[in-house]
Specification:
The structure holds two protein chains of two kinds.
Chain A (H helix, E strand, L loop, with lengths): L8 E4 L5 E6 L11 E6 L6 E4 L13 E6 L2 E6 L8 E8 L6 E3 L3 E5 L1
Parallel strand pairs in A: 1-9
Antiparallel strand pairs in A: 2-6, 3-4, 3-7, 5-6, 7-8, 7-9
Chain B lengths: L2 E5 L3 E2 L5 E8 L8 E6 L5 E7 L6 E3 L7 E6 L4 E6 L8 E7 L7 E2 L3 E5 L2
Parallel strand pairs in B: 2-11
Antiparallel strand pairs in B: 1-3, 3-8, 4-5, 4-9, 5-6, 7-8, 9-10, 9-11
The chains are: A mainly beta, B mainly beta.
Chain lengths: 111, 117
């Protein structure tokens, strides 16, 4: 049950796009289309922004999109805005014996 | 509106036990698997434990297996986490959560557990 690997930090200028990677194994990300992504501002509860690899909950901006290839999932933030500055976590479901594992987290800075 | 309210967090000494509770409202509790997720101060999210709607499947993170026990009472819309042999590294904000497609869509506000002598 090792944590999924994410870059510790990423940055971009307003209007740019950034893509956060999340690398797991064939037992978690690679085995099921059940990757989710969360946005968290300091001192607040995490917010679900992507589930089932590509789906967005109602009310989440379409500037957020998800994808997966093999054992790596990705979150793309398009048209970066100041309000996107936050921590982002991926999570994958690994089956009925291990359930879930989170990523190490990525701090996004808008320059 | 779906709501989760955690309670039971406290300051405890290493080696002691603590029981967390999570009361659900605004949704059909027995339709969902429920989970505990924690976040140590200044650190990332860590999935701790989960239980299916019927308690048929239960799983734990390696870091707590053998020390923590999750349970639920569907009649009382409640989720529990019995924590024993607590360690300093268990210090964290503990959230209960659930969601569709094995995601965590709804979160409580969390309850703080501090393990220190």
């Amino acid at each position: 049950q090792s944590a999924l690997t994410q870059p510790a930090s990423m940055s971009g200028s307003p209007g740019q796009s950034i893509t956060i990677s999340c690398t797991g194994t064939g037992s978690d990300i690679g085995s099921r289309n059940l990757v989710s992504w969360y946005q968290q501002y300091p001192g607040t509860v995490p917010k679900l922004i992507i589930y089932a690899v590509t789906r967005r909950p109602s009310g989440v901006s379409d500037r957020f999109s998800g994808s997966k290839s093999g054992n790596t999932a990705s979150l793309t933030i398009s048209g970066l805005q100041a309000e996107d500055e936050a921590d982002y976590y991926c999570c994958s479901y690994g089956g009925s014996s291990t359930f879930h594992v989170f990523g190490t987290g990525t701090k996004v800075t808008v320059l | 509106e779906a709501q989760l309210v955690e309670s039971g967090g406290d300051l405890v000494q290493p080696g002691r036990s603590l029981r967390l509770s999570c009361v659900a409202s605004g949704f059909t509790f027995y339709d969902y698997a429920m989970h505990w997720v924690r976040q140590a101060p200044g650190k990332g999210l860590e999935w701790v434990s989960g239980v299916t709607w019927d308690s048929a499947y239960i799983a734990y993170a390696d870091s707590v297996r053998g020390r923590f026990t999750v349970s639920r009472d569907n009649a009382k819309n409640s989720l529990f986490l019995q924590m024993s042999s607590l360690k300093a590294e268990d210090t964290a904000l503990y959230y209960c959560s659930y969601g569709d497609y094995h995601s965590f869509q709804i979160w409580g506000q969390g309850t703080m557990v501090t393990v220190s002598s």
